[in-house]
């Protein structure tokens, strides 16, 4: 049976996306592959389909190494819905359940087996693999989220390192390693760590055109976030990333009090609460998850409409992976980040204070600088993001800078004033001060500290009285981002000059800033993202009748999902329900060929779907 016919029979899709077909052909032919595809690009199919084909040919199971036990139940559930024999082996099972799975494996009854890396590398599991291999029932290893093997990836997991044993012990079994994180240094590290030198690398376009990137200047971030959600994403599912557990809880509270259906998620929560919150996010409509970066890996909810960052991540890989969780269904979605001076200070300090070797820190600094460059940019955000992953592109028309090109102002003068204040104080007394005091001096404020240290006598005192505090903060942030000033974490976060200060002081490097975006911006244009409130976002515009059918189908789907204890999108995607609603099928034949309607789902659900459609005329 051809791969294309499995695609249509099992998944109900009519064509492969991007490099899927090449990857599947390569892996099915016994080759190793390293697959770099953005989140939502369609990675799972690249191993599921070869696994199904091998299983049908009597060659047993593919072992999928997946880092998160908490998601295996849903992953396997989704395959069951499509009629695929899939199972997992993990610590949530009883000994008997696990034994039953092992027996089915040994009989060749299973196409895909999911397990976590720490389990796969146990002697017991390896012995099971030996038995399968001897019987010719081990078809493929799929290593998902493979960037976890690298310390340069942002989710380093030491257990992944031990996976080299698979290659050493089962050299003839092909391996496919997949990730959405792919900068050059991480890529090289993955290849080396897992001995994938002979693997063919497949790199897809990293563009996610439906995601609108926006980075706004931080003033009162909680209010800014609340306004963003209320104006643009009421009742919609989203993720809000914060750096600390405490902040997660605080923001989740504030949102909940404002009537947003918000839940917290971080590694410090009781595991049962955490799992329950995750389940609610996956199963209910319109939940906003406020989370640390501990949340998100492996989450494949397709209708996340926004990802918001209240704190800046460490690097572009992290940012891109996190924002990539928005809009997997291809419909308009927002990536919104609120960014300010403190973010730059904190991130720089975390690197400075880390006990790592200097060489390692300098890689981290380089990565942070790239993200700061993105945040400060006045040109297309997407061009910069894609360039970071080695991809050329033209201005996108769907980011804040493309939609509303920012007005810039030349901030070289106030930048020089700030730097020379630092210089003068240092020369005068050998002392250093923090940002607030420096701004007070420039703005000519007579504070106790100013008087105490005689800073009224400085020639720069009051020189910057024409600038607002917000403007000066922006200048300082830009200087920090450029590396023209640094924060000394060991001395109470005081500011100090750097090698780069000189060029600014001499007027050789200009400091250009966007005019404050702190004033509320209108919802950019009547473009892709805007819709009358209350209208669901669907891939096709629905008539009123069709909309009634769509809503009825959604209600029916919710019931089925509850019965099966699975997220609704695992039963059918919104896109599938929308095309059913649009076509108003009257017979099983009418349902055939609708995207997402595989043979098993047709068998299981056709009569119910037709009944729901007929009831709505
Ligand atoms: P990733 O793991 O790369 O983040 P997924 O494997 O979850 O992405 O796929 C993203 C979405 O795209 C899923 O909902 C999947 O069903 C859908 N998809 C994958 N391949 C195809 C295809 N060839 N045609 C249509 N939809 C597809
Ligand atoms: Zn753009």
Rg for CA atoms: 27 Å
Strand order of the largest sheet: 3-4-2-5-6-1-7
The residue fraction in helices comes out at 40-55%
The quaternary state of the protein chains shown equals single chain
Beta content comes to: 5-15%
CATH class call of the largest domain: Alpha Beta
- Spatial gap, N to C terminus: 39 Å
- Count of folded domains: 4
Query: Mind summarizing the main beta sheet?
Result: 7 strands, parallel
Q: How confident overall, as mean pLDDT?
A: 91
Global geometry: globular
Task: Count up the helices.
Answer: 27
SSE layout and pairing:
Blueprint: H1 3-11, H2 20-28, E1 33-36, H3 44-56, E2 61-65, H4 69-81, E3 86-88, H5 95-106, E4 112-115, H6 117-120, H7 123-134, E5 138-143, H8 164-169, E6 175-179, H9 184-193, E7 200-203, E8 211-217, H10 221-232, E9 238-241, H11 245-257, E10 262-265, H12 271-283, E11 288-291, E12 306-309, H13 316-323, E13 333-339, H14 341-353, H15 358-376, H16 381-388, H17 400-403, E14 408-410, H18 412-429, H19 435-443, H20 448-452, H21 469-482, E15 485-488, E16 494-497, H22 501-505, E17 512-514, H23 544-564, H24 568-571, H25 574-583, H26 588-591, H27 599-615
This protein binds adenosine-5'-diphosphate (ADP) and zinc ion.
The site of adenosine-5'-diphosphate (ADP) has 15 residues, from helix 3.
